[in-house]
Structures are given as C-alpha cells and as structure tokens.
Prior knowledge:
By secondary structure, this protein is of the alpha+beta class.
Amino acid sequence: MKRKTGEKTGDRLPLKALAVIRYSAYILSLTLFLSGALLLCFPAPAGAVPPSVTADAAVLMDARTGQIFYDKNGLQRREPASLTKIMTAIIALEYGRLNDVVTVSRNAAAIGMGSVLDLRAGEKITVEDLLKAALIMSANDSTVAIAEHVGGSEEAFIEMMNAKALVLGALHTHFANTNGYHDPRHYTCARDLAVITRYALQNPLFNQIVRTRETTISFYDSKRKETIYNTNRLLREGSYPGIDGVKTGSTPRAGNCLIASATRGGRRLIAVVLHSANRYRDAVTLLDYGFSEVTRVTIGAEGEEVARLPVANGLTGRVPVIMAAPVEVDLARDQLSQVRREVRMVPSLAAPVKAGQKVGEVVFRLKDEELGRAALVTGQDIPKKGLFSLWRKTMARVNASGAGAGDATCALFFRLPSL
C-alpha cells in the first residue's frame, strides 16, 4: 500500500535529515578536535610579553589591515574628548567644500571652553582653515562653525557623524556634539576610535593636516592671521621616529587621551590610549611593541596536511587533505599561542578521487577575529577499485584457504557479472 504524502513514519528521520545531522556532527567534532592543533605548532616564544600601559583602555592597530595587535578594554565605553574631531573632520572632508567661505555665527563665536581659535561673529574663514584649526590646535569653536556650514545646523551635522559611525562599524559610538564636550550621550571605545582613525587616514588631506607641526591660517578679507601649533607633543617635538599623527584629547572626565600613528619599514601603526596617566609614554610603549614584536608569520603552509578523509570503494581507504594556498599574517610574538584553526570539510569521499579536489576550508582565528582562510583539497589521486584489485583480493583469499590458482581464476571469472 502506498503511503500518503505527509503521513507520519514513526520516529525515524528521513535519510537526508540524518545525513545533514551526521555531517554537522562531523564538522563540529573535527573543529573541536583541531582547534587546539595550532597551539602546539606555535608555542609562546620566550620573553614574549604584552606591553603594560597606564591607560584605562588602549588598542594597537595595523593601519593597512585593521588587525589588532594589542587590546586593553578595547570595547569599554569611554568619553573621547577632542578625539571626536576626527569624525568631525571626516564629515567635513566628504560633504564640505574646502574653499567655501564660512561666516562665523554667534553660536560658534560663543564657544569659549577649552582650546579655541577665538572666532568672532561675522568673521569669514574657509572650511579648510577651520579644519586645520580643529585638528592641529584642537579648536572647539571651529568645529561648530564647520558643522553649521556643512550640515546646515549643528544637530544635522551630528546626525551625519552618527550615521557615518554606523557605516564604519563603530557600533559602540554615539556623538552628541562636534568637539568632545562632556555629554552622557557622547561616548565611544578604543576599538571604535581606531577604526574611525584608520578610515580617516585614508584621506590625503586629513593625513597632511594631522602630521603638521605648525601652520598659519588666514581669515578671509581680513588682515587677521593666526599661527597654530600641534597639540601632539610627540609630533611637535619630533621625539619619536616615524611619528605622523594624529590627535590629542583631554577633559576632566575623559582624562588625557591620545591617538598616535607612526610608520616604519612600510608598516603604519595606530595607537589609541584613553584616560591615561601618561598618554605619550603609553603611546610610545604600544608603538615600540608593534614595531619590535610584530612580524610576518606563516600560520598555514601550502601543501600542509591538515587531515585525512575516508574514501569509499577506493584502492586506499583514506586520502590526505592539504592546504591549497599559504596563509600569512602579521602577528605579535605573544599572540602566536592564541591562534586557533577551524577545519570544515566533508565527512567522506567516494572513489575515484582526483588530486586537488576541494573538500573544505580551514579558517584561522585570533580570539573572535578571523586572520585568514584557505581552501582544503585532496593531496593525491585515489582510483576506484577495479578488476585488478578484485583479483588480488581473491588471490589473497585463495592463498589463505590453500586453493590453487586455477580455482582462483575460476572464482574470479564467475564473479565478473556482478561487477
């Protein structure tokens, strides 16, 4: 009797469902089994110790790749102080016109707390010069003038800042003003600031401004000129080799903060320190650590055997699984012991198997961050069992039973139709 569609079949699962469950269980067990394998390959080198900083939160990031080499409370909510102005600059550069002449409003001129350019209502100055004042001398009044001109209002400009933060993946950040004044709704974290800074450094003019030690800005249609000096002491004094940015920040609640960047040997690093007892020393400690301890490492070699897969109906029962390409990353020495790999591949194969046949992939991770991945392929051909292998097995049985070769040939002959 035919079973109706949808009729229950007891507690037995369909074959496809069983296959999916078995495959998932195999992948999970293989991942768990191999996740610690790389720890054995890369023990922590002697003397590899992460740096110690006084900052409550700190991050060291590779400017090119975005990879994190050091993290201390990187996702902890902190006040950014004037580091806010990096995002202010991003919006001004992307939505404003640098040669536009801004007429200073009474609202912008009224800003007097902290570092200011001492703007006066009715004065005229270009967006570019306001931007220089904001980034070099950290002028709080200039950011308000920028926001009103580029965004139409300070509120609209702040909305643009928050929208950009989301686009960049700075999900732990919210801005309530353009200059970093204290506000319960104004917060970020060290990781987000590193992400925002890395993005900003891709802009040539931003790069140029944040590495400027001093410059003179001129007011439009006026004799007024102001020479401004960079608040970043590392940059201003040129005391650190390769230093090339980016911004300081200080308020009573945020404490002393600094984002510093430096380039050596083609590698650019971004150090973020928040609420620090000595922000310059902390930044130097992180940068030194990055330049001395971070190196290029092959965490997976091309052709490296990762596992062996069972092969059904093959001349041999298993086939080696190898990496199709190398995986190379920059890592600090003390991070090597924390790298794990996840192997994901099919549970088995059926002959014939061709060398180079893709069967899965291997993913390398540092904590929750993916470092790289590569395809896994079969390392050799595995032919399907044929007449010769059958004859050899038959001969082995015959020899074991003491029968003659003729009996073996006869036995093989009569078995041929079932092949």
